[in-house]
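Protocol step 4 of 5: obtain the predicted structure for the target chain.
Materials: sequence only (see below). No template structures provided, no constraints applied. The aim of this step is simply to have a reference model before the mutagenesis design in step 5. Sequence pasted as it appears in the construct record:
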Amino acid sequence: MSLSIVFAVLLSALLHATWNSLAHAISDRLVGFALIGVADAVGGGLMVAFAGMPPAGAWPFIVASAALHVVYNLLLLASYELGEFSQMYPLARGTSPWVVALVSVVILGRELPVAELAGVLAVSAGLIALVFIGGRPGRRDLPAITAAVLTGLAIASYTVVDGLGVMHAPLFAYTGWMFLLQGPPIAVLAAIRRGRALPSAVRASAVPGLAGGAISIVAYTIVLWAQTSGALAPIAALRETSIVFGALIGAVFLGERLGARRAMAAGVVLAGVVLISLP
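Step 4 output (C-alpha cells):
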C-alpha cells in the first residue's frame, strides 16, 4: 500500500473509534444507533443526488452491503448492551482481519506477501490480547463474546463485499446508495420499540447520535476509497488500529486507565501496522 492509503486508513480508524465512543456513551443505545442510521440515510441521499445511479452490475453488492451493515449495527448494539466497551470493541474488530485475509487468499485468489501476512496476524493478536488482559472470560460472558465475534464476522463480510463492489461503480454512487439503504431499518425499529417515548429519547441523544452518524460516513467513505487499490486484507487489518485510538480516547477523555499490559498489546498492534506498511 502507498503511504497515502496508509495515512488515510489510519485517519479512518481514528474516526471510527470516535463515533463508536459516542455511540457507546449514549444511554439509550437503540435510539443512538437509530440516529446514526438517520444521519447515514441523509448523508447517503446527498451523495446520491450528486453522483446519480450506479451501474447495474453494482446493485447486488450495494444491496448485500446495506443488509450486512444493518446486521452489523444490530450485533454491535447487542455487544454494547451485553458487555463492556473495552472488551467488546477489540474482540469485534480483531476478528475481522483474520477472516478477510483468509477469504482474500483462499476464495479471491489474491497473494498476501509474507510481511503483510505477519502484519495481519500481529494486529489481530494484539487486539485479541486486549480482550483477555482483565482475565479469562467466564460463562456469563459467553453471550457478549458471541455477539462480539459475530460482529467481527459481519465486519469481515461487508469488507469483502465492498472491496469487490466498489470496483463496479463510482465511489460516491456506491457509497451513497449503500448508506441510503442501510440507514432507515434501525430507525424504524427504534420507532416501533420506543413508541410515544421516542421524541424525548431523540432529544436527549440527538447531538452525539447525529454526530456519530456523520463521522461514520466520512470514516467508511475513506475506507472504500482505499479499497479501490485492491489490498483488502492489509486495509482490513490497518483499520483495526481503531482500538488503539479507542484506548487512547478512553484514557485521555474518559478517565480510563491504560495500564502497562494494555500498552504492550497496543505496541503489538503498532508493530503489525509497520509490517503492513512496508513497501
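Step 4 remarks: The first helix runs from residue 3 to 25. The mean pLDDT is 86.
Proceed to step 5.
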